[in-house]
Amino acid sequence: MPAQLVQIAAAPDLVDQVYRALLDAISGGSLAPGERITQEDLARRLAVSRQPVLQALRLLKKDGFVLDAPGRGLLVAPLDAEWTAKVYQVRGALDVLAARLAAEQRFKIDPKLIERGRRAARGRSVEAMIDADMAFHHAIYVASGNPLIAQSADQHWRHLRRAMGAVLQSVPQRESLWDEHEAIARAIAAGDADTAARLSEEHGAQASRTLGMRLAERLSAHTPTQAGDTA
After folding, report:
1. Residue 63 burial (C-beta neighbours within 10 Å; 0-12, 13-18, 19+)
2. Contacts of 4 (CB under 8 A, 6+ apart)
């Protein structure tokens, strides 16, 4: 059954809209890892011309979300646990810096962000879980006062969103994640930069280990058995 893509109305920023529609489909699994894709098929399903699709695919290829397919066309890049761990390393460093700078401002994170996250963790919507997580961290990026942090983190979150989506489809998000978020928020509001940075580093390391382990398990489960392997 072909993946469902929502048709897009014509607009000046059509390339960006197509890019985001395809990125959402890749992140959400509608366009699955390893799936072959073509300009013609995507243009038809999005009800747009081939030109914006071509440009969007070039951007997705540059960003590492699609690869050249053997023969003709492109394919959705496979998930890679090792690459995801490297992305987490960079994101973790940005989180620590943002938390320290936000604490220097004694920024008070909206408690509704944490309430939203707890509700999402208790629910079944993978998208809601990821959106709440991203919203919390983005609030800290903004509070840091350095716009380059949010800009730099955005690209890394695009890759992490995809890996998180794949894992959370089968393994629910632990609600204790939001206890960690709340502790970080308290340290930031108290102006305790060292504690905020330390908690952010520990939180990122734990998240990286958990996601990496579960992603590796998922990828292993989806790897075809080779000759000589035991069932």
Report:
1. middle
2. 30
Residue with tokens 């960079």: 90
Where would I find the beta strands (DSSP E) of 8-157? 36-37, 66-68, 74-76
**40-81, pLDDT tens digit by residue?**
999 999 999 999 999 999 999 999 999 998 887 899 999 998
Integer Rg of the chain from CA: 19
Q: Domain of 27: which CATH number?
A: 1.10.10.10
Q: What is the pTM of this model?
A: 0.81
Amino acid, res. 8: I
Of 29, 51, 76, which residue sits at a domain end? 76
Structure tokens at 145: 């006062």
**What does the pLDDT read at residue 2?**
57
